[in-house]
Input
Amino acid sequence: MKLSVLALASTSVIAISTAAIGQEQDEELRFGLGGAVVTQDEGYKDVGSETQFVPAIAIEYGDFRLLGPYASYTFFKTDSFELAATGMLRLDGYEQADGDIFKGMEDRDMSFDFGLEAEIDTDFGEFGLKYTQDVTNTHEGYEATLSYGLPIMVEKGRIVPYIAASYASEDLTNYYYGVKANEATADRTFYQVDSATNFEVGVSSDWFFGQNHMIKADISYTSFDSSIKDSPLVDKSGTFQVLLGYVYVF
Output
């Protein structure tokens, strides 16, 4: 099964890793290589949790970042504000072989979503706002996310408790959690999913050892909107994810 947050979470192993490099010129090419062990349950009925090892690669040059399936270009920034264009592979979806609940259904594929992301640093924490839109005519929807994190600096590390709320359009949620009329059975009724607002709470942490080594440990839980929880494909109230990763920065 394609895990929805798996690749994005594993690339976040790399995302902070450049901080371990120290003071370098902005235009210097930076390269990181690592991997993460990720355990996640997407909430689908009778599928359960999965644990996978995911390799991750990152390239950073000036204002451009390529972090696994996530790319961004920061075109405006100040000491406390950044605005970037972003593109990412949304690795949601499933195939019939992923579980009995999907037998007789069409596969749901990954998409490429493009959008904008803003980050604001304040004395009270970090605020983020992100909007992405499918540009591959896969789910044909969009998602907007508002987040808040409170960074806590500790010896050799950084811990960030955070909360986030994500609004997903009807096209997006119905594609991944809906059941079409021609897919309906006695055990899997036709279901049209409305738009959904999901809430996430978690803790992200990064631990630096010298200029080249970083360990990342994250845990999070996302609570489903009722329109997703009522889907015949879902038997849980949300999803959880645990990540443990390592990065070597060259």
Residues 2-25 have pLDDT under 50 and may be disordered. The CA atoms of residues 83 and 118 lie 5 Å apart.
